[in-house]
Design brief:
Blueprint (H helix, E strand, L loop, with lengths): L2 E4 L4 E5 L3 E7 L5 E8 L50 E5 L9 E8 L15 E8 L6 E8 L5 E9 L5 E13 L4 E7 L7 E6 L3 E6 L9 E9 L9 E6 L5 E7 L5 E7 L6 E3 L4 E3 L3 E6 L2 H16 L13 E3 L1 H4 L5 H10 L7 E4 L29 H9 L3 E6 L3 E3 L3 H5 L18 E3 L5 H18 L3 E4 L21 H16 L7 E4 L9 H6 L2 E3 L6 H11 L8 E6 L12 H8 L3 E5 L7 H23 L1 E6 L6 E7 L5 E8 L21 E4 L4 E4 H6 L12 E9 L1
Parallel strand pairs: 21-22, 21-30, 22-23, 23-26, 26-27, 27-28, 28-29, 29-30
Antiparallel strand pairs: 1-2, 2-3, 3-4, 5-10, 6-7, 7-8, 8-9, 9-19, 9-20, 10-17, 10-18, 11-12, 11-14, 13-16, 14-15, 15-20, 16-17, 24-25, 31-32, 32-33, 33-36, 34-35, 34-36
Helix pairs in contact: 6-7, 10-11
This protein binds (2R,3S,4R,5S)-2-(hydroxymethyl)piperidine-3,4,5-triol.
Length: about 725
């Protein structure tokens, strides 16, 4: 039993792999948090309560003495008594007041976790459902807690229920969690197009630190992730609580330094421009939040996320499968291709080990540039003479798989779809629509629109025997308005858009179970756990320059497994930055994820093709590590001249280390790189150095990489236990 209820103290203990989460039902029937950290025995923890009352605290009717409600480390903060911290829930009752007091009424312990309706979530895991209810209105909240015996995380969410009368949810977050101190750092992943998931660290303070999106997409600007860490936390030392929302629409995560010296964490669906009407007896489900705990610094947090996402979240049909090593034509041709050109690209990679060809944007409708054709999912026969089938057959005849690009959620004004159905595109009454990349968004809150997309995309996939789909999404919503909702419910739009995306994914991805789907959003602007539930890998960034990629991939690995990141080798000069890194560096950095190639392969020399063949052979040898290994970041490209990431197999029999030096200089400093994650007792052979050393030596003295002359140099080492 991972979850126990100690009746005498009314305390719940939830034990994960190395963690314990504990809270009690207090004398007021509040769910009061006690502990989330390293695994501990089930002692009575009530001695550790620190609550008390201070000035301005109220005496509630029928009670003696003042009660400091905002000192309860509440499992569900709410508004209306004297808790002035960030509420998790805010309701408007039929009477117009905004009060609720959800108190303990019971609980259930389930062997396995029920799914969230209409939204992705993790699977499995023993689950506690805590029932709280307001005695006056009947409004209720069910708090779900799931623990895993193979990972140091807790998954939480809330289901809210209207009582006997309707309510309006003004805020419906997924969790509240109190941490015992104020002095923490907050880490988050910020960025932009071509600069996704850079790491930012700030100290928490009294008041609220919040990260959010109001775009109806999780975005490249801020990922739905926040880590609260002991000040000075490193990759290997210090306590960290990492919070990640399984959600792809507008969100918010908040950390509030309170006046009693604690930190309150809360968040979920963005409540700006949100409200949800609940009829009497109706329920509202919130997205799941995954909260990892590590006593071993940021590295421990990342490994906890990676493990639980691989075992319980990411598309289980493909997560452990050997990945396609593909050639994608986007940077090779952009929109300018025809069948002979594409066949030549396929021919040119023969014998390299590349096993999949992905035809990117431009194969459909009048799509010769980005100003036309989106929505017209029929083949452009001017480019693809005789249609798509001969090309698909040609690729298959070479023993390769065939992939195809779609952007299912979008439409160009200049398209047959828009001319026939302008009402399918999102628009607000009496207002013009904004363009982004000449395109509008389809209104996924409407069933008819979703049905159209599902029918047309599924028809193409099945008609041509497509093996792989790249699903792109290249703009964010403007004119937030649903054609399916009455005026008074328009603030449901952003959440309903997400539900629409998930419905498409269910009916396209899950309805084509043998087809491999890659996620994409103008690079990695929708790289979140909910997308990973459907897409085993996501295009990490349109920026393919290895110098930039070291930061993007390092930042992304804070939360997401290496195998979830699509990483491509592209041509030089790099199309985004104009740099000229060597093929070796490009292949090594792209090899630290789900690797592929994206260039005009007809321009490769025979020597380059031979080199590529060697890189792919090495990649296939290392693939088990990329798929299942534990990640140890050993050199931080944000703070130094080097990037270093190690991956070690769970049994510690194999490892690999990639180190990269940004700038070379005259009389270079001597660089030592300490390996991590090996077994100190075992001896490892390193073929690149023709040497055998103990794990202890490798992790304490480290290696002294001898980089080649020049900038952007990379070295790779492999470790094989004897
Ligand atoms: C943005 C993607 O990130 C690129 O890889 C490419 O697919 C283009 N869209 C195509 O328009």
């Amino acid at each position: 039993m991972a979850i126990t209820f100690e009746k005498s103290t009314r305390t719940f203990y939830l034990d994960g792999h190395n963690v314990t989460y504990a809270f009690c039902i207090n004398e007021l029937d509040y769910a009061e948090h006690l502990y989330y950290g390293k695994r501990i025995p089930h002692d009575s923890l009530l001695y550790s309560r620190t609550i008390g009352a201070g000035s301005f605290d109220p005496t509630p009717p029928g009670k003696d003495g003042q009660i400091g409600y905002d000192r309860f480390p509440s499992e569900l903060t709410f508004f209306g008594n004297s808790d002035y911290r960030e509420p998790c829930v805010h309701v408007e009752n039929a009477t117009g007041d905004r009060l609720c007091e959800p108190l303990y009424v019971g609980h259930d312990i389930l062997d396995t976790k029920p799914a969230v309706h209409g939204m992705p979530c993790m699977t499995g895991g023993e689950t506690l459902v805590l029932h709280l209810a307001d005695a006056v209105s009947g409004f209720a909240a069910d708090l779900y807690y799931t623990v895993y015996d193979d990972a140091d995380v807790i998954a939480r969410r809330v289901v809210y229920h209207a009582g006997n009368s309707a309510v309006v949810l003004r805020r419906a977050y997924s969790f509240s969690l109190s941490l015992p101190r104020n002095e923490y750092d907050c880490l988050s992943l910020y960025g932009n197009w071509a600069k996704e998931r850079h790491i930012q660290r700030i100290p928490l303070h009294h008041g609220v630190v919040s990260i959010d999106s109001k775009r109806a997409s999780s975005s490249a600007v801020l990922n739905p992730f926040m880590a609260i860490a002991e000040r000075g936390v490193t990759e290997t030392h210090g306590e960290v609580w990492g919070i990640n929302l399984v959600y792809s629409s507008s969100f918010v995560l908040k950390a509030q330094g309170t006046n009693d010296g604690t930190t309150l964490l809360t968040g979920g669906i963005q409540d700006f421009d949100f409200s949800w009407e609940l009829a009497a007896g109706d329920s509202f489900e919130t997205p799941e939040v995954v909260i990892a705990y590590s006593a071993e610094g940021l590295g421990g947090m990342s490994r906890a996320f990676h493990r639980v996402y691989r075992n319980h979240l990411i598309n289980q049909r493909f997560v452990n499968a050997t990945r396609p090593v593909l050639i994608n034509n986007w940077e090779g041709t952009y929109f300018n291709f025809d069948t002979p050109k594409l066949k030549a690209i396929v021919d040119a990679v023969a014998g390299t080990g590349i096993d999949t060809f992905v035809l990117d944007d431009g194969w459909f409708g009048a799509r010769n540039a980005d100003n036309a054709g989106l929505g017209d999912w029929f083949v452009n026969e001017q480019k693809l003479e005789g249609g798509l089938q001969p090309l698909v057959d040609y690729v298959h005849s070479k023993g390769m798989k065939f992939g195809l690009w779609f952007e299912p959620e979008m439409v160009n004004e200049n398209s047959d779809l828009f001319r026939a159905h302008p009402e399918y595109a999102i628009a607000a009454p009496n207002r013009e629509r904004c363009y982004t990349r000449h395109q509008f968004m389809l209104d996924l809150t409407c069933t008819e629109v979703r049905d159209y997309i599902v029918d047309t995309v599924n028809r193409i996939i099945r008609m041509y025997g497509i093996d792989y789909v790249k699903w792109d999404y290249n703009r964010n919503v403007t004119e937030f308005f649903s054609g399916a909702l009455p005026a008074h419910r328009q603030s449901e739009f952003s959440h309903r858009y997400a539900l629409g995306v998930y419905d498409l994914c269910e009916r396209i991805i899950n309805a084509n179970p043998t087809v491999f789907f890659e996620g994409c959003s103008g690079g990695g602007a929708r790289f979140d756990p909910a997308m990973l539930y459907y897409f085993p890998q996501i295009w990490t960034s349109d920026n393919t320059d290895p110098e930039e990629r070291t930061k993007i991939q390092y930042g992304t690995s804070l939360v997401y497994p290496l195998s979830s990141m699509s990483c491509h080798v592209s041509a030089i000069p790099n199309h985004q930055t104009g740099r000229y890194p060597s093929l070796h560096t490009r292949a090594c950095i792209a090899g630290m994820g789900a690797t592929g190639y994206e260039l005009d392969s007809t321009q490769l020399t025979e020597a380059e093709k031979t080199e590529i063949q060697q890189y792919i052979t090495t990649y296939r040898d290392d693939e088990e590590l990329i798929l299942h290994g534990d990640v140890y970041r050993v050199e931080d490209p944000f703070t130094g001249n080097y990037y270093g990431v190690a991956v070690v197999s769970p049994d510690k029999a194999r490892g690999m280390l990639t180190v990269y030096r940004r700038m070379g200089s005259v009389n270079n400093e001597i660089k030592r790189v300490r390996m991590n994650g090996l077994d100190p007792e075992r001896y490892y052979t390193i073929p690149e150095l023709d040497i055998t050393l103990s794990g202890a030596v490798l992790m304490n003295i480290g290696l002294v990489p001898k980089f080649e002359y020049g900038d952007f140099q990379t070295l790779q080492y492999h470790f094989k236990a004897q």
